[in-house]
Amino acid sequence: MTVESYQRVQSDMVFDRIKVLFDSFGGSNYIGESVSITEHSLQAAYFTAKKSSEDEVIIASLLHDVGHILGLEIHQKMEMDGCGVEEHESVGANFLKKLGFCDRVCNLTRCHVQAKRYLCFKRPEYYQNLSEASKTTLKFQGGPMSVEESSSFESDSDFQNILLMRECDEAAKIPSSELTFTVPPLEHYRSMMASVVDASQYKGSYVLSDFQKDFFNKNSFVKIENLLSFENIAPSDVSTWTQEVSNLEKQEGKWLQHWEKSESGDKIMCRSENFVNFHENMRNLAMNSILNVVSQLFGEKAVLFKEKINYKLPGGAGFAAHQDSPAYIGLATDHISVMVAIDEATVENGCLQVCPGQWDSNSNVPLTSSGIITPEAEKAMVYQYVPCRPGDVLFFGGYTPHRSTANNSKSSRRAMFLTYNPESQGQHHAAYYQAKHAKVQGFDGAHTISFQGDFQGQIVE
């Protein structure tokens, strides 16, 4: 691939990260106004392009409120009396910097709130013309500037462009039913966006926001709803690949297939393992954006440790409260597991439950002799259900306590689990499955599918 081709691919991925953000969450109402965030953003860019020919200024207008959408992406409760994300201008600018946008775009994005504060100081009548939502947010943004702040703000080399952006920001609140002109769609700005992005600064496929990383660091789990959309992978694709894996016939030393006896006495499939190296689409799924996101969470490159599909068909058993890493027979010390929801996961069909917190190898959670969390420790924990739609991707730490109930519904709850460890802790995939094959072959009648006793069903051949 030539340098030009590589840069084009990278800039396209930057655009696609922005696109899935707007597609997934831009349809939400814009902080108390009569337009959506996407409508507001596109109108702002349209008005700016009428008065400026500079790509950086137009793109900054388009993306000035990206920080609000990032808050919606993590389902963060709206702050500022329900009118948006506090310091959204800095959150957005930091995110754009991660994506490789030039300093000027990031700085213009960061300054659009300051323009409102400046104008409220400089022109008292400006405040009176603000919408009620904009007046509300001003209280949380520092209010009108002081004399000293305004003097410093006026010295900015982009002072006039910042004011222009603010003018267009205020104008961009026209309900779609009242528009008398055509506003270009987001795709219109693809090539323009590429011109203000330094592709060499882009660090990978799907880039996490600070909100997503902070949520994971605080809770030891985070759900991402638009990751597969970024990869142009439909939930139906993953369902098809899962069916193909479930149809693989047993072959010595390769994939593993497990069955259980359901509550009605039927033999049903409960798990497939070790299939990534034998199924191209599953390998691509595991080794692209998912691996990249895990690497961001680790802060270093990740490698695949193991993989499985838990089918949890109707009547399928649940899993006792446990942590994953203690079951990994000393192969690496840190792990992150990734659940890809194949079917809808609900409370009724036994969706995952997690215990939020900052869990790690020093948490010293009491375990039974079979490796699950003791009943006393489990009782003291607060678990929350994590319902998922097909295609949702849930990341959780190797020491995050989790559990699930049996599937008492009539619908399947299939889910894929991909586990990773930091590359600095070694490559253990082959060693893990060598040990797992030996465990299954030498099984004495209990818990064939795990190195610990978390599975609550009855395994059958």
TrEMBL record:
Entry keywords, A to Z: Iron, Metal-binding, Oxidoreductase
Signal peptide: none
InterPro entries hit by this protein: HD/PDEase_dom (IPR003607), HD_domain (IPR006674), OP_Dioxygenase (IPR052567), Oxoglu/Fe-dep_dioxygenase_dom (IPR005123), Phytyl_CoA_dOase-like (IPR008775)
The keyword Iron appears for this protein: yes
Molecular functions per Gene Ontology: metal ion binding; oxidoreductase activity
Positions of the Fe2OG dioxygenase domain: 300-422
Pfam families, sorted: HD, PhyH
UniProt entry tagged with the keyword Protein biosynthesis: no
Family affiliation: Belongs to the iron/ascorbate-dependent oxidoreductase family.
PANTHER family in UniProt: HD DOMAIN-CONTAINING PROTEIN, PTHR40202
Protein name, as recorded: Fe2OG dioxygenase domain-containing protein
Source species of the chain: Acrasis kona
